[in-house]
From TrEMBL:
Protein name: ADP-ribosylglycohydrolase
Organism this protein belongs to: Pseudomonas deceptionensis
Entry keywords, A to Z: Hydrolase, Magnesium, Metal-binding
Family the entry assigns: Belongs to the ADP-ribosylglycohydrolase family.
UniProt: Mg(2+) binding residues: T61, D62, D63, D284, D286, T287
Gene3D superfamilies associated with the record: ADP-ribosylation/Crystallin J1
TM stretches of this protein: none
GO molecular function: hydrolase activity; metal ion binding
InterPro entries reported in the protein's UniProt record: ADP-ribosylglycohydrolase, Ribosyl_crysJ1, Ribosyl_crysJ1_sf
Cofactor(s) needed: Mg(2+)
Comment on bound cofactor: Binds 2 magnesium ions per subunit.
Amino acid sequence: MTPTDRALGAFYGLALGDALGMPTQSFSRGEILTRFGHITTLENAPADQPIAPGMVAGSITDDTEQAILVGHLLVEGNASIDPNQLARRLITWESGMQAKGSQDLLGPSTKRAIDMILAGHSPEQSGRYGTTNGAAMRITPVGIAIDIAQPERFINTVVQACQVTHNTSLGIASAAAVAAVVSSGINGKKLEHALNAGTEMAFIAEHHGHWVAGGRMGPRIRWARQASSECNPDNLGDLLYDVIGTSVASQESVVTAFALAQRVASAELSSFDALCMAASLGGDTDTIAAILGAMLGACGGLELWPAALIEQIIEVNSLQLEPLVRDLLTLRHT
C-alpha cells in the first residue's frame, strides 16, 4: 500500500465519518436510536436537524470543509500556516455558509477566537480559550503533509494550525494526537503503533499553548484505550457515551475516537462498523466519526471504505481530494 493510498484513506475516511454523522449530530443517543436505529449507511438529515436541517445523504459538514481549508493553506504556505491567514479564511468560510442559510457555522472556540481577531487581538491571544475539538477535526492535512519522524517540524506546524483558535494545552494536545496517528499511518505503521504515537504526542504537545484546567489529553487517551479494550461489547456504547463523553470538549470527543480506534486495533470492530458506531453514539457524532475515519484510513488505506459510499460523497459534494492529497504528500518530502 502506497502513502497515497493511505493519505486518500485518511482524507476520504474523514469525509465518510463526517457524512455518516451529519444527520445525527447533536441528537442524544436515545433520540438517534428512535429516529434511525443504528446508523449503517449514509442517511438524509431530518427537517428538524438542529445543525444540518434537510441535508441530503452523503453531505459533508464543517469538519471536512475546514480540513480542506487547512490543507490548501499548507500548500500555499509551503508547509507553513500563517495564523492570520487562517483566521481570514475561516471568517470567509463562515460568511459563505451564512449566505447559503446553513446552520453549520464556526464552533464555540473558533467563533470566540475570530471575534477577538476582529476586535484587534493577536493570534497568540485569540486562541487562549479554545479547548474544544475544532483544531483536532481539521488537523488531518498536517498529518499528511508533515512527517512525525521530524518531531520539531511536526509540532511547530500543529501549533500553527491551532494557534489562532485553540492555543491551549488541551486544544494543541488533542490536535497533535490525531495528526500523529495520521502521520504514523502514512509512514506505514500499524494502527496499534500509530495510536501509541498519538498517545505519546498528546503528552509532548500539552506543553505548548496556554495552560487550561481540565483532564489532560494524554492520560485520558491512555486510560480510554485500556478501558475500551477491556469493555464487554454490550457495554461499549455506555462507556463511550456515559463515561468518556461525546460533547465538543476535546477530552470527550477526541478521546472517544481513540477508544473506538482501539477496538479496531484489537480486531473487535471493523473500521466501517466503528465509524457507524461513532455516528450512532449521540452528541458530536460527525466530528467523532470524522476524526476516527481519518486515523483509521491513514493506517488502512482507501480500500477500508465502501467504494459506493465514497462515490456518493464525491458526487453529492463535488469533492475531489486527489489533487490536494498529492500536493500535501509533496510537502512531506521537501
